[in-house]
Every structure is written in structure tokens, then in C-alpha cells.
Amino acid sequence: MNQQIEEQVLSRQNPHWEKTYARIPEMFGDEPSEPVRKTAVIFKQEGMTNILELGGGQGRDTVYFAGNGFTVTSLDYAAEGVKAITEKAQKAGVSQAVNTLCHDVRQPLPFPDAFFDACYSHMLFCMALTTAELECLAAEILRVLKPGGLCIYTVRHIGDAHHGTGIHRGEDMYETGGFIVHFFSKEKIEHLATGYELVNVEEFEEGALPRKLFAVTMKKSL
Q1: Which domains are present in the chain?
Q2: What is the value of pTM for the model shown?
């Protein structure tokens, strides 16, 4: 019964994000994140142009990719987020390079095998997703990547100040201020890299707290 209650709690994150995006149009600011700047350099060096972005939020990183010569398919499960991404791409004059889709990553990705050059995600993996759901997501990303394709994602880790605080929602998930965060250990990163080559795990900080994160790079075998 407790597990069922927790699953219901996790599912309620969707309307919470919808309301938050509607109330705060620039929740994360309008400047591209530092991870997307670094990732764009890597993708360019590798000749990767067709990008899948998971958890596009309100589009600050999406627009950065599109403005730097990439074609981006950006997914978010909040309709308000998808709307914001679309509007921001139009305003920036890059809408021809941006495809948006409202999609819950707990469901299979709606793309054929070996479709994308690379996948990028800034803090989507550390949302209210169970380890089992993350395993399925990692496998789906592997499926839609071309051989040699890269998956670069960021997650808050167990050294973060918020880890262990607030309401425990199972596994390493804690709710603070209405938001549930799944905090990662290096062991969890290694576990989710099954089927990939784990290229790099780098620690960095972001924001005023500051949030402590891992930037993870995984590669699909040729």
C-alpha cells in the first residue's frame, strides 16, 4: 500500500510542473546552461547534428542548440513547457530547427531505432523517476541512438545539500518545496550505463545553493 501511495505522489509532479511553468515563465532564466554550452562543443567535434533533448523545460537549452546549427527534437511532459519552447524558438527565429513534443519519458520514446546522433538532458534523469523507470529510459535512449551516438545527461548527486532533506519518497528521492529530486550515486550512474561505454563522469556546481551535480557522458557501441 505504501508503494502505491508513493507512486501516486510521484505522478502528481506533472500538474505541479504545469502550474509552476505557467506561473513562472522564466523559471530557470533565459540564458543557456553551462552544460549545454559544453555539450554543444562536444557534439560539434563529433559531427553530431540531429539531437534529442529530454526534459526541455522552457527551452533555454533547446534554442541554444538550434542557434548553433543543430536540429533539435525537444520533449517535455508538461504542456506548458512545450508551449514555452515552441514560442521561444519562434521568437529566436530558429523554429525550423526545433521539433517539440509533449511526452512522458516513463513511456517508450516515439522514434524509430538508430534515429538520433546524440541525446542531451539537463536534470531530467533526477526528476521523480524510479530506478526501474530510469533503466527503461536508458535502454530506450540506447535504442534510438545511432551506433557511436552520445548520451550526455546531468543529475544532482548524493553530495548535494538537499539530499536526505524534506520528505522521503522512496529510493534516493526527496521532496522539497513540492519538487521531488532523485539523487544519484556513482554506482547508479554505472548501473544505468549498461549497454553503453561510460566515457566520463564529471562533478560540477550550479546555482546559488549551490546544487551539486554529475555530468555523465555515455556512448553507444559501434
Answers
A1: 2-220 (3.40.50.150)
A2: 0.91
